Task: structure prediction
Amino acid sequence: KSSDKTYSENENCHKDHPCLGYIQVNYLKNPLLYVTTPPMKCLFGVQKNGNKKFHMNLQFTNLEEDPMMKQFFDFVQNTEFMCMKHLGLTPDDADRFVSQIQYDKNEVYEPNLLVKLPFHYNKFITDLYADFSPAVNIFTIKKFQKMECDLFVDKVWRMNDKFYMKWKCKIIHMI
Result:
């Protein structure tokens, strides 16, 4: 019968194994890593890239002056480094991991975090709240809007010999 499937764990599976598609991220016994951001600026509003793929860029504002922002930046960066370590990436092949922290090429602006807005079955699975208005939706988010977000990571994907750990937004609280 074609629906009978068997699965087995491969103890020899590694970063270059041809069957590796993704790795589940677990935090303690939870099947994902969940964190709330400090207040951050959404630099460009919600942007669409490709077919039903939406994202936003959250700026690490006042990174050097704000200890909460610095702590969050360090958390994101250390999470990426820990993931690279578990994948077995070395300094020689570290460029195979695509960081979601983006830097201004001219080093004028502070870094930002690329955040995905999950979209399934023709709807966002991101909840949105605003203290100042009950009538908001994801497309009314303006450039430089301040917000706190609940983010999660569930998987590390391998695609075209590169690894991606996407931060996904579950809740947006506009402030």
